[in-house]
Amino acid sequence: MARTIIEPFRIKSVERIRMTSRDERERLIRAADFNVFRLHADDVMIDLLTDSGTGAMSASQWAGIMRGDESYAGSPSFYRLETAVRDILGFTTVIPTHQGRAAERILFSVMCKTGDVVPNNTHFDTTRANIEFVGATALDLPCNEGRDLESRFPFKGNMDVEALEAAFRRYGRDRIPLVMITVTNNSGGGQPVSLENLRRVAAICREHECPLYIDACRFAENAYLIKCHEPGYADVPVREIVRQMFELADGCTMSAKKDGLVNIGGFLTTRDPELARREKDLLILTEGFPTYGGLAGRDLEAIAIGLDEVVEEDYLQYRIASTRYLGEHLTSAGVPILQPPGGHAIYIDAKRFAPQIPPLELPGVALTVSLYVIGGIRAVEIGTAMFGRTDPESGVETPAPNELVRLAIPRRTYTQSHIDYVVEVLREVYLRREEMRGLRFVEQAPFLRHFTAKYALLGEPSSS
Ligand code: F0G
Asked: What is the pLDDT of residue 340?
């Protein structure tokens, strides 16, 4: 039996990649004030900025787009989505939203009030922001291995269950309206959560009669990693693992832009009819009637089909193998990465990659600039530009705990030779890492500054 894992699809429709030269890219990145978010996507050759909404839909999803029914109320496409969610995730109430953060906003507006605390393994930034927006506190409780970039523990996404018990003792059930767990843990490196950990978290929640919600964006990748690494699950079908994961939860928020295999969409689920009623009232206010949320009927149809395709084991085997392939090749080239490779992305440790650049000189941003200039690759900094804080009074800047650069892999979009190219470019950048230069902020917004910031190379005036 051949061992090569091939892409389990053929390509029917292609998108041209515009080739650019290094000189052109030097000019373009300067014109973008060294912030890759400010580039035109046409000027990027391999776009690894995010795996969210950037994947390729299948021929059956495109067929579903044509079949999508655009009725304002009671669209058959909604009922197809409802059936898919019930069959795969086991929830009977589905509230469609235009993307994951809209589901979060509705959930936390209904469940949280000022002074509440929401524990999670690690909140994604929109989740945290939506909790803080209603005056509550987002509490990250990653397991110890999850804090160590080099540990190869296979379930670094786990929640620290003792810390969860301590949180209940400290704040009391009255201040904890719900517990969340993010699968896979994106902000913690795309690392999975084991079923054993999910069961322990669910048991603690049950003991306190506290609802448990899953942030389900990458649930299928998490389930496949359970199959690969958790003792006892090698022969259990992924669909069954998914069923066991969600049976532990009272509801979920979902960005279908990830494991829904679509370009837009999301949903919220709950088992509590009274909560569902209040959530639907809010949905009508900002997203739309409950059988379409913020989406077109065709989007609902594409999500229903995507949910079914994402739990196919051939797809997941290829998906996880291709991320691991990138991680392993970078590791053998000496590039320091967060270990082990996660489900949807590889995270480069820019602190160890370019130790000559101190955190306040933004080594992660410097690496995104080099990747673009040398190879036309776009990655995202997850370090001091994203999470560092400037004291508004003193102007003193506190760096983020880690300086990471994420290479997120869009689903079913790039082939192995694209990934080989990424490895080759990174090898080149790594060999020339001493030439990398730090940057400074020229302009920044008061929040979420990394999206729009302008930077300049140290020692140079700003270009705009
Ligand atoms: N939760 C997690 C774990 C996420 O990774 C994301 C999005 C969201 C919620 C919000 O979903 O974008 O549909 O509103 N992550 C993207 C990323 C943006 O690049 O990792 P959304």
From this structure: 96
